[in-house]
Every structure is written in C-alpha cells, then in structure tokens.
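INPUT
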Amino acid sequence: MWTPLQNHHLSPIQGEALPVRESRLIELHGVTKAYDGAAGKFMALKGIDMQVDAGEFVAVVGKSGSGKSTLINMITGIDHPTAGEVFVASTPVHALNQEQLAVWRGKNVGIVFQFFQLLPTLTVAENVVLPMDFCNVYSVRERRDRAMSLLEKVGIPEQADKLPSDLSGGQQQRAAIARALANDPPLIVADEPTGNLDSQTSEAVMQLFADLAVDGKTVVMVTHERDLSRYFTRAILLSDGAVVTDPGGQNE
Amino acid sequence: MNSPRWKKLQRDLQAARGRMAMMALAIAVSLFGVGTILSAYTILTREISRNYLGTHPASALLELDRVDDSVVEAVRQRPGIVEAEAGAWVMARVEVSPNEWMPLLLFVVKDFNTLRVNTFQSEDGAWPPPEQTLLLEREALALVNAKIGARLKVQTPNGAKQGIAISGTVHDPGLAPAWQEQTAYGYVTPATLAWLGESDTLHILKVVAKDQPSDIAAIDSTVSALAVWLKGQGYTVEEIRIPPPGKHPHQSQMTSILVMLLVFSFMALVLSGILTAAMIGGLLAQQIRQIGIMKAIGARSSQITSLYLVLIVLIGMAAVVIGLPPGIAAGRGFARVVGQLLNFTLYSEAIPAWVYGVQMLMGILVPLLVTLNPILRTTRTTVRETLNDYGATRETFGSRGLDGWLSKIRGVDNTLILALRNTFRRRGRLLLTLGLLSAAGGMFMTGINVKTGWERYLADAASDRHYDLEIRLNSSQSEGKIFSTLTSIPGVQKAESWNFAPAALYRPDGLDIVRTYPDGGHGSFTLRSAPPESNLMGLPLLSGRWLEADDTDAVTLNQNAKALFPNAEIGDTLRLTVEGKPAAFRLVGIVKQILTPAAAYVTPNGYAVATGQSLQSTNAVRVVMSEHDANTIRAVTGKIERALEAENVSIKVVISETMLEGATSGHVYVFIASLILMSAVMAVVGALGLTSSMGTSVIERTREFGIMRAIGAKSRTVLRNVISEGVFIGLMSWVFAVTFSIPLSLGVGYLIGNLAFRAPLPLILSPFGLVLWLWVIVIGSMAASAYPAQKASSLTIRETLSYI
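OUTPUT
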C-alpha cells in the first residue's frame, strides 16, 4: 500500500524513517499556506509535517491566528495548500479539484462546525439525511432509519422532527455530529465544536467524540480549551503556522 | 423529490414566499404585456387580411370615359386578368347638422346581388337599396348622426341638394373607417345616382389581376398592357389606381404600432428578467453560508446549481400560469377594440399554438438565462470562501475615491451620512438596483415622451395651417367671382387660391398610374398651387427652400411626396403626369407636413402651365376668418355655402379645422392609449423591482442592524437609516432614468415617426412624466424599504446577530 508515501518517508531529507503503519490515516508533508492580505503575503502555515493514525483523537491547539483552522481546512480539502502534500486515507487531497473534493469529502470526512451550521429550513433528521442524499449512499428507504439510529447514538432521537431553531445549542451540536457521521466516514474533523457550549454540555459532547474514537473513527479537533485535554490521545500545538509540539510526530 | 435537498428548496420557497411571489408576479406582468400584444398581433394581422381579402379588392381601378357590359366581358378574357367589373363613384356631400357638410363618397353598384370585386355585406335594413334610397357603411351611420329610415340631405357635384332616405347599412371592411377619415360612405344604384343629378354611366373598371395579391410590379405591367389595349379599342383611359396589393389602407399603420408595442413589451420582459436576477442574487447572498455547508458535507456544485435552477424554473412556471391566461384574454379584448376601431369583423379569435409556446418558453427561459450566471458564480465559490463570507469581502467600503469623498462629508445628520455611505458599500447590488430602476423609469418616461412628442407633432401640424377653412370646388371657377363673393361675407378676412389636381409619377407609356385606394385619400398624390407670398401655411423646411414669387418650374414636396421619388435631390427635375399630361418641375425644397397625403407645391404660374388652366381660375380656396372659434367658423361656413350656392358654384368638399382634428386624432387615439398601457406595465415592473431590491438589501443587512442596535441605535434610527438609503438610491436612479430616456425616446420617436409620418418625432421630455416617475420612485422607495426595515428592527439583537 501507498508505496509513494513510503519512499517519501525514507528519503534522507526526512531524516529518521518511521515504521510504516497500515493504520496511518492522515499524512501532511511540507504543507505551506500563504494568503495575499492587505499587508502583503501572510504565511498561515509554514511547512507542516504531520501524521495521524486511524482511531486517534487528536487535538490541534494554539492561539488565535496560529493556523489551526487553516490546518484542518487542508485536511478536509476546504482549502488548498500553496505547497506540500496532503494524503487522507491514501487519497491525495491536494490534487483533487472542487468537484472531486466535494464527493470525496462527503464520503470520507464528517465535519462539525463551531456554530453547528445545520440548515435552518430542514428538520434535524433531514439535516442528517442530507449528506447521504448528496453522495447518494444508502438506499432511499434506509436513509431515515440510519438517521434515526445516528440520532439515538448522539442521544437526541426525540428531536428528529424538529427544526434546528427549536433545539438547544448542545442538542444542535449533537445533531451536527450525527450529520457528520451520516456517510460513515473514517475521519471526523471538528472546528471548536464546544466553543459555543456551556461546560456541562461541552463535557457531554466531548465524550461523544471520545466514544467515536473508541469505535475506530479518527477525530481531529481544533480547540482552545486546555481542560478538555484528558479526552485526547494526542495534542498538536501550533504557533505562527508551525508545529511546536507534536507528541506523536518527529518534532518531539 | 422527497429527499432533503428538495425539501430544502420547497421550504426556502415557503420562507421567502413574499419575494418569490414578487418575482413570479413581475415576470407574469411582463408576460401579460407580451401576451396581450403578441396574441392581439396574431389575431389582428390575420383578421385584417381575411377581412380585406374577403372583399376581393380590385388590383386596379381604371377610370374610363364609359364602362359598358361588352368591355367588361372582353377585359375578363384579357391575359393576366381573372375578374373585371364595372362601377362608379362620386364624391358628394352630406349635411350632418344644419349647414355643416361632410364628404360623402357614393359608390355606384349596378347589381348588388352579383357584386364580385370590392364587395361588402348587408348589415341591417334593405338589400339591395330601393330606388331613391342609399345604404350607408355601418360606421358612417354614427358619423352622420342618423338612423336607418332617416332622410339625409345630400348634394352631388352636378345636382341640387336633395333628401334621400337611408334604407340600410352595410359592412365594407375594404375601406378605412368612416370616423377616422371623416368621410361618409354610401352605396346607391345607377338610377338613384341619376336621380341625384349625376350621369348613370359607369366609368370605373375594376379588375383583379392573376398575380394578386402580392406582386405590385406584375400588376403594374398587366394593368398597363390592359390600358394600352383599352386605348386601342377607342376608350379614354384616365387615372389608374393600383393600391398596395392585398393591404388594408390602415394595415401598415396597425402593424407598425403593434410591432412597436411588442418591442416595449419585450423590454418589460427583459426588465423583469433583470429583476429576477437581482432577487436571486439577493437570495444567493443570503444563503451563501448554507451553500458552503452543503458543499462541506459532500454536495457537488452541480447538485446545488440544479436546486436553484429548479427554483427559477418553478418561478417561471408560476409566472406563466399567472400571466399567460389574462394576457391571452386581454389580447383578444385588445384585438376586439382595434377590430372595431378599424371596422373589421373578427371571424376567429383563435391564437396560434406557437404564441402559447413562445410565451411559456420566454416565461421560463428569460429568468433562467439572466440568473444562470449569478447562480453558477455562487455555487462554484469554494467552500472556504463561502464559509468566510460575511458580506463584505471584495466590495469593501473605503477603497475608492468616491468613498474617500463620502468619508469627508461633515455637518449632516450622522444617520444620513451612514445611509449615504451604505448606499455605495455593495456596488454590485447597487448597480443592479440602479440598472433596474433606471431601465424601468427610462422606458416609462419614453412612453410618455413619445406620446407627448406625437401630440406635439399634431399640434404643430395644426398650427402650421393659418387658415380656418378649405373649400374645394367641383369645377374651376373665375377667381375674381369667387373672391368677391367670399370677401363680401362678414367674418371672412382673407381668401387665397390653392388649386389642386391629382398627380402621378410620369410613365413613358403616358399612363396615369397612382397608388390611391378607392376612398381617394389613402395613397393619393396631388399637385397644388401655392401663392409664394402666402402666409397661410408655415411648413417647416426639411431641406432646400420654399417657393419664391419668380419661380416658374420650381416644386416643393412634402415628405410623403418625397417618398415617391426616393432618389431625387434638390435641383433634380421631377417628371409628373398631371391630368393626363406630362409635366416637369425642378425640385427646390422638401417640407414636413404631418398626416397629409403626398403633395407637390408649385407656384400658380407653374400650376397653370402644367394643367392648362387659366391663371384667373380656381378650384380650391383657403379662407381666413376674423374670429377662429368653432361657433364663428361654423356660422361663417354656412354663410359661405349659401353665398356660393347663390352664385351656382358647386362645392366638392369643405374641410374645416374641426374636421381635420377629428380625422387626425382618430388615427392616433389607439396608439396613444396603448403607449400609456405599456408605460403602466413598465411602472408596475419597476415598482416591484424597487420593492424587492430594497427588501433584499435590508434582509442582507439584518446582522448589521443588530450591531447598530447593540451599540445603542434606536429602532427608529435604524428605520430612518434604511429609508434614507432607499430614497437616495431611488433619486439616483431617477437621474439615470431621465438620462436614459433621452436616447431611448429619440430612437423610438425616430422609428415611430418614420413609420407613421415619414418624419421622426420631436424629442420632448414631458415634465409630467418626469414628475410622475419622481413621485413613484420616492414614495415607492420609502414604502419598499420601510416594511422590511420595520420587520428587521423588530427582531431582538440576539436574533439579528445569529441570522444566517
């Protein structure tokens, strides 16, 4: 499997070669992102190398403006790197075009946003069915049942037929997690999912993510909140677009 | 359609139902306009043709010294002729109220039951008319204020005034309507004509050429060959009338008006298309984050694009459902009105299937085409861009010169400054709104301007005539006798001789072929003597000069006559046939004369040479009275008639200003009414556009209002801010609309003027139109921005800030 990556790893520039693991899900190599801003070129990411294995629950932490969101946008393909390579489940994400990305993302990545971002005119269950509909996975009959079982899994089956505006913040975020799981993606990416929740609700939502990791999903989460660190298997600290500490990576 | 994305579409439609309804309504209103005109057009062009061709119009009418049965029979056998028939006409007069006479064109029919050329049908009363009675054209009945059975006082050129009963009415769709021409049409037998004092000899030979109805050149050659043959047989061939084949006298006029209305209604449709684009643009701006989310969870651009395209198609279909049936109904109604005005019967109101097809296609395609680009642009935006969109990415305030200037405004109320600056913040939207309102306003004002220009033209034409009455005589009389008779009548200030003779283009074969219709007016061409020193007519010069006293062979044409000589230039020699004799004149000038058939003006000397008539004789006199009000003119006209009668002078026709006014307004009434209708459609679409774009921009800024209120603005301040912005945009659009209406009015005026008068309409910016549109725009923009702003300002701060 993925021999190109293997070769890449063994190159002398990378230094000490890592043992090749079949379970490796995310590979970033020399990822750089530059923006043209009003004050000239701004380097959001400076040559990031990073690996995440399947089943890990990784936190990306750092100050505001350190490049956290940009980094996960590279992983989800929401943004393109200026230089470098991004592989997710052996797919070269950096090489896909917008249309390929949409299809790939729909099947392989579940995204959870800080502001939940449920579509306001669809019920909770319909929001969960939407990714299945777009990617045309599961038969039309199966979809509703699957949505219900996902809502049960996140603990809000009774909210299925309500509109998002009728739900509390925590309930909306649970619904958003259910939606992220709709197409059974191997990777869940969350951008400050608890940023808008009270601490008690945050704990419950974090537990939900932790359970997902236990179930074999890989979870990458951007967060501010240090006191949630016990849930993570690893934390990657970013500063000024570079990895400062990565317990699982080469920088340590 | 049960999947969540289609449910989303359905609920978006529901959520924005006000705006969706407005879009559908705007398209529906303009579809209504297009549908009305298009269906009326198809009905009218078909039915006018059917009516006119149904009369079996003659290809040519030859005036001979006599037309007897044997020649009719022989002509029928001539090559290229399918039908021949004898007839006659006499221009008489009828008294419509005491001492007020109107032209009465009497058609003489030998056998009403075997009529085959230029036929007409019995409408009411007797058929054929008993001896010593006449039938009247149905429209003429109202014109002479009489009913069947009433007696009319009638006078033929050679007869005395005589009472004659109306025994019935007919419908003659081959003639221009009596009320428009201010001429009554009567139908009598030869015996009745003899009883009225005329010869009962038929002198008109009506023929139908084989090449009927389209090829005028073929008709010309067939008929001229026939004329040569007739001359060989010993007949005298005088005037030959070959009217435009297969065309009702008002057909071109009607078609050109309908085409112009069609152009206006298409403009309205394009306008509603722009409106739809603006509204969809607003909807997209509002939903851009939702689009981003959908793409983030796996939607392809094409899936999202199809959602919005289906939305547009649904709106288009709704518009078709709303706009098409009333458009068809109104088109039929409009056709009925025009049919009645032009005096023809609608045998069928069927509208061809393609009209329905075109409307359905337009209702759906036009909005689809105009929204395709904004939809594609938005759905192709990358997820990152959509998620980062806070409504101020590219078009940020503060980057351009204008903004710099706006930032320096001081000393005005702060809210107003904010409103001013806000106006320029989203330039794309501003341009679209301005474009929409300017286009609607420009077209609205163009409608009013063209109407005003038309009216001004007619008023100018009337003011070009500085006389009160024109009297045409049946035969030339001594000028001295006529003048002394006239000037001895109290109230007559001045009389001038303006002789007239029918003219035709010179042909080498010596034939006198004209393009005149049987009514004698449409398509006619006359030679007139004009005293060069006279100030009775002040026609504006288009080129060259007016006649001068020492001119002998000089001629000045009006623009309709100029059209008969398309290649002639000032200084060229024009060859005419006048009363059967060739005549040549040097073209010295061209004048503009509105709603007057082709006329060539020459000096009295020139006229005498061309016609062989003595300089001291006259057959037409123009009279100036000392008072110009309608009552005086009527009273003096009565005195003139009696005085001339006492002198045994037979009057052909008396044309007063009031009659001319009736005739000219009769020709343009329909046109003006429909222009106003079109302007109203523009105004409705424009007002809808205003409401929707204001509404959209308020909705887009809901979050901003929250911020304003969070930092201490009262609801009223927010409201005032929004309304000021709306009014400001409205006022700007008004300025653009006025600017835009100038070239548009010029263009439309040029097109219409040339079609109707062979001269472009003057450009007049109607103050009425300017002020009316200003009112519409100011009140409209206040109302349009107040409602959504009211709604937005009643939301709590928390609600506005969490608004997606």
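end of record. The interface with chain B takes residues 73, 76, 78-79, 98-99, 102-103, 105-107, 110-111, 113, 117, 119-122, 126-127, 129-131, 133-135, 140, 179-180, 182-183 of chain A (CB under 8 Å).
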